[in-house]
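Entry 14. Ran structure prediction on the chain below.
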Amino acid sequence: MEYFELFQSSKVENAIEIVGLDTGAYCYRMEKKDFDELDRLKVAYYSGREYEELCDVLKEPAFLVSDRLKHILEVYDRKTQFKGVQLFSTDEGVKEYPLYWVPFFQETDCLHEKTQKYENGFLKELILDKKKIEGLSVFRIGNILEYKVIVSLPVAESILRRRFYGVELRKSEVI
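Output, structure tokens:
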């Protein structure tokens, strides 16, 4: 089975900036207890400037997915939990109200022994252990400093078919 890392595309230059969220609570690397303390649905704001890009994956202030992408991820992994962030523009003329979700993916200790790390602990080369991820469709790599979400080939194909905006998939090495 092939696997891919899911993240916000590097081609996105002006991703939507969310304001009004507690960045201490809504942080990029969130533990389960922190996720459980979040409100089921939170209201926040964005400027609504015409150059802001409404992406389907956001990396700031936390890893967030659009409502459309959430529905795809739920199909493949019913265990993933989500907490909502309803956005409203600070510009009264903007009538788009995007809904984003903070996902909590199953964390899996799945690095192969050949995975290389830098001295500071960040990954130099990601290699997944196929025995540890067998049967998983969507998960987060555990016991690393970075926040890496991995999806299986069927999930990646489903995402690509729907032409999500601002989403990038990078093939992961699996041994």
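The longest strand covers residues 81-89. Will compare against last week's run tomorrow.
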